[in-house]
Amino acid sequence: MGIHQYFKSLVDLENIYRCPGKFKYQEHSVAEHSFKVTNIAQFLGYVEEQAGNKIDWRVLYEKALNHDYSELFIGDIKTPVKYATEELRGMLSEVEESMARNFIKREIPKEFQAFYRHLLKEGKDQTLEGKILAIADKVDLLYESFGEIQKGNPEAIFIEIYSEALATIYEYRKLSSVKYFLKEILPEMLAEKGINKTDLPELTADIITRALKEND
User: Fold this and answer.
1) Given CB 3.0 to 4.6 Å as the disulfide criterion, which of 9, 30, 133, 148 pairs with 153?
2) If we measure between CA atoms, which residue out of 17, 24, 27, 19 comes closest to residue 152?
3) How do residues 152-177 score in pLDDT, each as one tens digit?
4) Is residue 115 within a helix (H) or strand (E), and if so which, with residue range?
């Protein structure tokens, strides 16, 4: 028992691939995803700070870096499946949390257990940092699916993932960081080479229009 086992487990996150068997052009490991989400969260946090909102940077970095560590125990489950029902989402969350607690109790020295219970708990909550994490997670998911669609991957799962990710981002549209994303970044994404030959511009407009109607 010791921190050695935790450090060793970080290597395993490099070998857990997201949406296994579906990426045709570029696979993404959980470790890579965590790094990208942290960088995206950093940018979103800065936008919020520039808008006058207070950011607890330590909390934000802790949430972003550790948000998918529990996938070490059950692997990655495709987003449309994971969120199919609230009941299923709750069950998966309970399993992940239980296995994380058991890992901490079994492998982490007692003097560090409280700290790691804090680090590995669910980070997406109603705090600004929790909301930024939720947005950053979906932004990276959006880019992962976008990359496959742009290159011509015919798998319908990537349209589903793109749609779910964008709809979730749009739910946070009142935040300054999301306003910036929708106004500045998303149009640049859709202006990328070859995208006008796909269904993404029309799909994007439809997702936003539908989301607006649902929230009226």
Assistant:
1) 148
2) 24
3) 877 888 888 899 999 999 999 999 99
4) helix 110-119
